[in-house]
Amino acid sequence: MGMLARPRSLAELGGFTTGAGHSTPIPARALGDAVLDAAVAPGGRRPAGLDSVLLTGASGFLGAYLVHELAFRLGVRVLCLVRATDRGAARARIAVALRRYGLWSPALMRRVIAVPGDLGAPRFGLTSADYERLATTADAIVHNGARVNHAESYERLRVPNVLGTVSVLRLACHRGAIPVHLVSSTSVAARPHGPVPERVPERPGDASGYVVGKWVGEMLMTQAAARGLPVLIHRPDRVCGPADTGATGTDDAFWTVIRAIARLGMAPPAPPEPLSLVPADYVAGAIAYAVARPPAQHRHAPVHHLVNHTSIPVGTVLDRLRATGIPVRSATVPQFLTALSEAARTDLGMARALIISSLSGPGPCRWDDTNARRALVRSGISCPPMSCDLIDRHLEHLIETGFLPQPVKVPGQLG
Using an 8 Å Cβ cutoff, are 183 and 213 in contact? Predict the structure, then answer.
């Protein structure tokens, strides 16, 4: 229980905010992993055409929306690499994810091809015949798969998040040059001063294991691009559910802290930093649109920032929580820290909130998204603005799924 020791201050706890960033040095092993094996190099370009897209991470939150957008926006077969013992189990995991976010339909499942495998295993744990079939069938790869845990070390995340990316690049180069779209994170390049450019930084935004692993992945991608592989890096900011349904994942750090506040019935003073969320259907739609237009060969992998330039105060989220009928009283910092620390002793969700909230980052960032906006100029795809309605849809969804407690009174209207 030592890692759940009570923080001494709100700054140490972190709350909603991000601080000055980690000073921990990047692990030496990560620096070595960031050098791509010389044997990973593409052959000739593949014939034009887009019939099948390989997607990793299809059973996750964003992955479910990517399955939907790739299948219906592009009309392709989606080859979903899923960790499972057999094809039936893999297909069942995909169906569960699609149902969770209200995306499942018979028409969609007809376009889904389940590929049972392990992202962290050599050749994904596939037989030689299955691996060759995948290398010759996939016309593009969307690499979205990763273990998402900001509290784990680089070593614990290295196999799925880094070695898995190497395996994706090996497959892409195995029979020619399959275009690769890497789903990364704005955390890789986050910095508090000046607009953050759309390029791979020399160092990651912080030294947490997850962010370092994503940075290593970007470094590997840009080296593959220099060798002739068509590559595009997509960096979404904090992803939420669609504006119309609010069907979001529950692993996100922000909603984890909101759950803690709702269950404790108290909140410390809201931080001044505004909140921006990027709906998953916008992110998935932008990526799918890019997949239909294979990236040109670049010496460095191009980057697209998928961000929301609108925001709302975090205090507004707490107001909307109260308006749903969940009482949240204002508390002092010591009161909140005491309650959260005590609850963390017996509730894993509270423990996760405590751990996550202790992590820091660079603070609010201004994102340059010139590349992304230029790519989407004729697509009709745009990011919905932040609004009280968007927050309300999310709270309704999280209450309905049991992630947040049931309201204890008739919801009121804020003036």
Answer: no
Reported as a single tens digit per residue, the pLDDT across 296-348 is 666 778 999 999 999 999 999 999 999 999 999 999 988 988 999 999 999 99
| Cβ-based neighbours of 105, under 8 Å, separated by 6 or more | none
The highest-level CATH class for domain 28-241+277-306 is alpha beta
The CA distance from 218 to 32, in Å, is: 14
Tokens of 124: 């994904």
Domain boundaries, the chain: 28-241+277-306
Work out the number of other CB atoms within 10 angstroms of the CB of residue 399: 18
Separation of alpha carbons 413 and 415, rounded Å: 6
The reported pTM is 0.90
Place of tokens 């069938």: 137
pLDDT digits (tens, 9 = 90+) for 282-305: 999 999 999 998 776 667 789 999
Query: Burial, 146: exposed, middle or buried (Cβ in 10 Å; 0-12, 13-18, 19+)?
Result: buried
